[in-house]
Amino acid sequence: MDKVITCFTKRPDASVRLICFPWAGGGSIHYARWAKTLNNSIEVYSVRLPGREGRAKEPFFQNMQEIIDEVIGVLLPQLKEKPFALFGHRCSRPSTPFLSCPVSCFDGKEDVPHDLQANMATLSSKPGLRYSVSDWATNNKQISDTAEYKRSISHDIRQEGRALRNETTNKTHWDEYDSSRRLSDRINDVTHWKENLNACAQQVDAEMDALTLSKEETERALAATVLPLEVTAECLNLREGRHGKELISDPVEAELKKEVEVIDGAQRVLQQCIDQAFEQLCRLQEARQQLTIDIQDKIEALDVDMSCLSLTIRSPEISLKPNPTRVPPGCRMSWRPKKWLWSLLSTQEEIAELEKDICGLEEDMQAKMAPLKLVHTRLENRIKRPGMDLCRDEVQFGLVDEAKQLEASILALKQKLAQAQHSLQSLKQHEAQMIEDLSRKQDALSLEQHSSQTRQRLTLRVQTEGLPSAVVPLTNSSGRHKLDLA
After folding, report:
1. Exposure winner among 35, 142, 185, 478, fewest CB in 10 A?
2. Residue 436: what pLDDT?
3. What does the sequence similarity comment in the record state about its family (predicted)?
């Protein structure tokens, strides 16, 4: 009986027996706690079928008739002793219709007797589905593998996020430093050219003063020729009053006419010099006005750039602006003063920085040789392990990975060092070309300056040349106003 029908708690004085049939795939153990839950008037029995629990090695029944035959053969003697009730699970009809004896049959979907209803109210009608140990292990492994995979993804994302944070932080700091450096260079350039423009404006003022003085002297010289011309002309008119044989062309008349021609020619030359001086003064005034405007623009530009240079990420006046990268109307491409010299200095600075980086690469590559030697030594020494201890354990795998990593790092450093050395050689060659070209430009500039000084002699010659005739004297027509430096 114990093989097919199990009673977990014997109650000889019980007035009724409860025979429990497990659901498909279930076992009798699920009803063990019912005996403790129900009162002493109920004795709980549970049916144990082949292939389950203690009968796990027995083959499963192939049809329902085999189950009926076995269960009835064991149950009938027990059912005749005391009143009993059957409890089972079904889909549409009771699971115990095969019993031919007059019994009370009920299941989870039918009304239970009043004496059992109160005690069974606390019991679940059907325990949860049970899994095998292999399913349990497979589920645990799947959960563990999934967790490991998700942790790996999370780790990669965290590492990429940290690398991106470091990269973007470094790039932000570098861009901020580079922009500040460019602002500082621009301020120095604008300051330099503002000083040059101030000096040029002073030279223009001095030139205008000298030209105005020369023009006034020329005008006085022109005015001084008026009286001699009038006297000579009057003398000729008086000599025209002679009569008869006295009206002759004598040397005196010839000299008087020659004097008139000389004075007239001198007046024309002086008048031409005055006109040229006036035109030059107008051009100088226009240039002086442009200088004043440019100097004032550079002062304002310096104020703006110095204000920008003083700003930091903690400044209270910084804010986001709409479309700050737009190109304002009238904006022109900038021309860097002393572009070649600046480019040469920048190239030399880059060469110095690259030489420092090359030294750093060589030091890092040399510093990794000691760890590589250590790993090689450990690997070589572990080959000497005897017997079964000579195995590829976690230490061996770790040392091999470390050796490969170090060799890859050294190879990457060597490649980067070769690239840096090649770039350094290229920069030095270009530096030599720039120095040679800059030398040629300096020679050409010196020749141009010498040529300009040579042509100044033409102006001096025009100012000191010839005498000539009568013109209307001119007053000072320069109209020059003194311009103050901004």
Report:
1. 142
2. 84
3. Belongs to the tektin family.
Q: How many CA atoms lie within 13 A of 239 on its CB side?
A: 17
Question: What per-residue confidence (pLDDT) applies to 287?
Answer: 92
Give 43's strand partners: 17
The rounded average pLDDT for each run of 10 residues, N- to C-terminus, in the chain (486 residues) is 78 86 79 81 86 80 81 77 80 42 41 46 50 82 84 86 88 85 86 92 94 93 89 83 76 85 91 93 93 91 87 83 73 53 80 89 88 84 74 80 88 90 88 84 81 69 48 40 37
HEC letters along the chain? CCCCEECCCCCCCCCEEEEECCCCCCCHHHHHHHHHHCCCCEEEEEECCCCCHHHCCCCCCCCHHHHHHHHHHHHHHHHCCCCEEEECCCCCCCCCCCCCCCCEECCCCCCCCHHHHHHHCCCCCCCCCCCCHHHHHHHHHHHHHHHHHHHHHHHHHHHHHHHHHHHHHHHHHHHHHHHHHHHHHHHHHHHHHHHHHHHHHHHHHHHHHHHHHHHHHHHHHHHHCHHHHHHHHHHHHHHCCCCHHHCCCCHHHHHHHHHHHHHHHHHHHHHHHHHHHHHHHHHHHHHHHHHHHHHHHHHHHHHHHHHHHHCCCCCCCCCCCCCCCCCCCCCCCCCCCCHHHHHHHHHHHHHHHHHHHHHHHHHHHHHCHHHHHHHHHHHHHHCCCCHHHCCCCHHHHHHHHHHHHHHHHHHHHHHHHHHHHHHHHHHHHHHHHHHHHHHHHHHHHHHHHHHHHHHHHHHHHHHCCCCCECCCCCCCCCCCCCCCCC
Burial of 71: CB neighbours in 10 Å, binned 0-12, 13-18, 19+: buried
Q: Which residues pair with 104 in a beta bridge?
A: 85
- Whole-number Å distance between alpha carbons of 79 and 5: 12
The confidence score (pLDDT) of residue 478 equals 42
Residue 135 has a pLDDT of 82
